[in-house]
Prior knowledge:
Layout: H1 21-37, E1 51-63, E2 66-72, E3 86-91, E4 97-101, E5 112-117, H2 125-132, E6 138-146, E7 155-161, H3 165-178, E8 181-188, H4 197-201, E9 208-212, H5 213-216, H6 222-225, E10 234-239, H7 241-254, E11 258-263, E12 275-279, E13 285-288, H8 294-301, E14 318-323, H9 335-338, E15 341-343, E16 353-356
FE2/S2 (inorganic) cluster binds near residues 308, 313, 314, 315 and 317.
Amino acid sequence: MTELPRFPQDLRGRPHPxxxxxxxxxxxxxxxxxxxxxxxxxxxxxxxxxxxRLRIEEVRAExxxxxxxxxxxxxxxxxxxxxxxxxxxxxxPSGRIRQYSLCGDPDDRFAYRVAVRRIADGGGGSREVxxxxxxxxxLTVRGPRNAFPFVRCESYLFIAGGIGITPILPMVRRAAAxxxxxxxxxxxxxxxxxxxxxxxxxxDPDRIWIRPDTEYGIPASGAELLEGVRPGATVxxxxxxxxxxxxxxxxxxxxxxxxxxxxFSAPPIVDGKPFRIALHRSGRILDVPADRSALEVVxxxxxxxxxxxxxxxxxxxxxxxxxxxxxxxxxxLTGTERADTMLICxxxxxxxxxxLDL
Length: 358
Ligand code: FES
């Protein structure tokens, strides 16, 4: 949802120094392993065919490099219901569409809140939010829809990395309000960059471990993040891929029952093969290497091509396929749609040339 720069990254999505590449490579290899053998796939996200025109009521600095937007109906009426884990698609003034988790109070029917970390070398969406949006503007949003459902369990361990606190915060609040058994581990670069700490402090501080890198060092291993998890607890985890991967790798030894995760960047490509894309309108031929997505390569030729989640569920990058054999890797298109379209952020080909209507 939120943009992050390309690999390599550390836990907070910052470029990794060279000495950190080895553990990162191991994490990606582990990701490939667990992705290949795990039976769990993201459930299809119900499409929400509902555009809302909302007013930005407040833009607020929440932490270093993080602002929140409070969105309300221009006429002041109630907004569609949402549950923890839901997100909005924001259509930015440039036409970019970006997804942001709802991080306010689901019981407040009159306002939505999203928070955005500025990513200097991302795709431009977060910079646009920070630099061009202000209170009083109208924005078109689509949603809310939920790709990260929060289900009732006996016991929870929430793990949030940086801006990954956004979908986790409403879950923590809901669990606290219900009197559930829960704990939160919240990691970040340093305290100043970690939003919503004051709101968390109003909950039960004994259940929360705030873990800034400046005090504890990096990287936090999955075992460290899972330390003390209750046997049978369910883990909800949101943050950068290396963090999620390490939690998934170390989960079986922890005694926790299951992990539900949300990542904020494109997943690593597993078992990719090189192939070619022909752009029908310009006649250009593009080579897609085994370790890059079609979207990445197409964006170099066509920087304005639309995308949002980069994970194969929002459908923003859907493109008509004129010829060629597509290996569909998304969880969103129907069988009929797969006959002549593809989601270029995740889907690819096992070889040969795919001609796109671009
Ligand atoms: S960008 Fe969301 S499905 Fe491709």
